[in-house]
Design a protein that fits this description.
Shape of chain B: globular
Strand content of chain B: 25-35%
Order of helices and strands of chain A: HHHHHHH
Number of helices of chain B: 5
Largest interface: A-B, 31 and 39 residues
CATH topology of one domain in chain B: Thrombin, subunit H
CATH architecture of chain A: Orthogonal Bundle
CATH class of chain A: Mainly Alpha
Distance between the termini of chain A: 19 Å
Number of strands of chain B: 12
Helix content of chain A: 55-70%
Structural class of chain B: alpha+beta
Oligomer: heterodimer
CATH topology of chain A: Arp2/3 complex 21 kDa subunit ARPC3
Shape of chain A: globular
Radius of gyration of chain B: 24 Å
């Protein structure tokens, strides 16, 4: 499937799942499950950095529109979109894996651990910044830390389940321009 | 000049990042309760449409609860029927009509509009409810919202043509005044952003008699919510060591987890009260 079409469908699906499934689940006040930002982690390696940030802003802003208080998720999404390329460079094992494969996954990043660190760090940053912006208005440091850690754990579990359920086909591209 | 362009080209990503980040934080800070720009109108309209589509599915799962609450509301109304009361023998009673206006021609103060909830959140720190009724159906900002059993839900803050956004009691900027039914002391409602359905009531002096199980009702001081609407039942009341007030936590009467239908209250006198207050403000300035 065309990358553009695929990503548009993903965008819509992630927003719908986040708003109408995960936001309806009330696990505990300390745990807010998030998965929509997996869209940003799955963006192609070769996409321009400025585009990644603009798309991330659009994703965050769309979710914010459903929550009726714009800014929070947009800020967190832009932050992880900015940091993502640095992490990809750190975690890519061999030369040229990012040109041989299309987007980050277990296979393209060379195993479970690098991909797990990649998602883990970005999840932690996303949740940390998001809850910091929210807690900044409420102001309770322990509440903020516990909420960030618990939500990160639940979100990572959700991502793991998503990866196992919806295996993405990653073909090895031999002759890339 | 050339150096500036070089600088921009070199740090383009960082600058873009900072500007997007800055714009987001600007949106967070400058989002006021009463902003009513065209922009928010458009986003409300679009998200409202999506929410309504989804609500059509979700509605079926809530039918039982909705039905229960409507039956309760009906029972309450039946009990208020005039036919249920036996009138006292008033033949010896002299009525003195103190009203200057023709009392037969009663004038209406409140109108209740029913509305369906198409989106509702409790898990966020600032919660909103979206109703499928907007400015085209007589809804304005500042109107109060109650559930079928007269439990206070919130106040309308934003209106598009077909949808209205309600700031629920579970929102940090929501400061509705509440009153203890027993003693009559009034205080301000405040939500700490943690447990849904548990709200605190502030500014109740230690002299007041508060106990677990007491009722909190609306004070009627604002033009949004009439007096005597149920707000909640006190769960715990502890004297605050640092001040002369109680720390009161109560469970809200409206269950925010499963709102399906609500009533929007239109106060016909709101305009009049507002103009008087504006005049007073002008004079004191």
């Amino acid at each position: 499937m065309n990358t553009l079409v695929k990503n548009i469908i993903r965008f819509a699906l992630f927003i719908l799942v986040q708003v109408f499934v995960l936001d309806k689940i009330h696990l505990h006040q300390m745990v807010t499950p998030y998965i929509y930002y997996l869209f940003i982690l799955w963006l192609p390696f070769r996409m321009k950095r400025s585009w990644q940030m603009i798309i991330a802003f659009a994703l965050g802003f769309t979710l914010d529109s459903f929550r009726h208080h714009p800014g929070f998720h947009a800020a967190a999404c832009v932050l992880i979109a900015y940091i993502r390329p640095f992490l990809v460079n750190l975690m890519i094992p061999q030369e040229g894996a990012d040109t041989n494969y299309e987007e980050p996954s277990f296979k393209s990043m060379g195993g479970f651990l690098p991909y797990f660190i990649f998602t883990g760090v970005l999840t932690l940053i996303h949740h940390g910044w998001l809850f910091f912006l929210e807690a900044w208005q409420f102001g309770n440091i322990w509440y903020f830390i516990v909420k960030t850690l618990l939500s990160t754990a639940v979100s990572l579990l959700l991502i793991l389940i998503t990866e196992l359920l919806f295996a993405r086909k990653q073909s090895f591209r031999t002759n890339t321009a | 000049m050339r150096n500036i362009f070089l600088f921009i080209r070199r740090y383009f990503h960082l600058l873009l990042f900072l500007s997007l980040q800055g714009f987001s934080i600007y949106l967070i800070i400058h989002y006021s309760r009463y902003h009513n720009s065209i922009f928010s109108g458009i986003t409300n309209e679009v998200t409202g449409k999506v929410n309504q589509q989804f609500n059509r599915v979700e509605y079926y799962f809530q039918l039982k609860k909705t039905n229960d609450s409507l039956v309760k509301a009906n029972a309450k109304l039946y009990n208020k029927l005039k036919a249920d009361f036996e009138l006292p023998d008033s033949t010896m009673h002299v009525f003195i009509d103190s009203l200057k206006t023709d009392s037969l021609e009663g004038y209406r103060k409140y109108t209740y509009y029913p509305a369906k909830v198409v989106y509702n959140s409790v898990a966020a720190q600032n919660n909103f409810i979206v109703l499928s009724r907007g400015s085209a159906q007589n809804i304005r900002t500042g109107m109060g919202v109650i559930d079928p059993n007269t439990g206070v839900v919130g106040v309308v803050t934003d209106v598009s043509t077909d949808y209205a956004v309600v700031m629920s009691l579970l929102h940090k900027d929501s400061h509705i005044s509440g009153k203890l039914l027993k003693g009559g002391e009034t205080g301000t409602l405040n939500w700490d952003g943690k447990t849904p359905n548990i709200i605190s009531l502030k500014d109740i002096p230690k002299g007041a008699k508060v106990a677990k199980g007491d009722t909190v009702i609306s004070s009627g001081f604002s033009t949004s919510i009439p007096k005597g609407m149920m707000i909640g039942i006190v769960e715990e009341a502890v004297p605050d060591k640092g001040s002369s007030n109680f720390l009161i936590k109560f469970r809200s009467a409206a269950n925010f987890y499963n709102l399906e239908y609500v009533y929007i209250i239109d106060n016909k006198q709101a305009e009049g009260i507002k103009t008087i207050l504006d005049n007073v403000k002008k004079k004191t300035q």
